[in-house]
Amino acid sequence: MAAPSSFVAITALTWVSFVRSKHPVTISDADDVYLLFFFDCRGRRGIDPQVSDNYFGTCITGFLGKATASELLAEDGVAVAAAALQGEVRRAAENPVSGWNWLDLFSWLPQDRLVNVSGSTRFPAYEVADFGWGAPSRTELVSVNNGQVIATSAGSKAGKDQ
């Protein structure tokens, strides 16, 4: 396996930590556990018609990592999680529309065994949230999905996420 991206590495560690925090009370060794992440399709090949990179609307698709709790709780659990996620990232990059049935996932995915990673690093919160008393020093999401979501947003400085 190639070295994971920072997204894959951090998300894999988060996924394993989530499973460890719920085991053995609400997640057993044999349970399947999931990580759902979203992929921005703007400017990607393989979409017909092509969606411009500067399109402002929503153009996302979801991809799902899956493993058993015992795989993620093993000594090499972070590597197992990273491999599963890296495969989904590769699939997303090669064929973004292959994940377009992601809304169907919510009908059967057990929410107590799901990590949902989402965010919007393109929303310019620091530029648009000046209400007359200066730009904010920090912005945060108030509440999403009962606190079971990892959300990322652009930081106050270029190239930074929070």
From TrEMBL:
Keyword Transcription found: no
Keyword hit for Acyltransferase: yes
An example Gene Ontology molecular-function term: acyltransferase activity, transferring groups other than amino-acyl groups
Domain of life: Eukaryota
Entry keyword set: Acyltransferase, Transferase
Cross-referenced PANTHER family: PTHR31625
Record-given protein name: Anthocyanin 5-aromatic acyltransferase
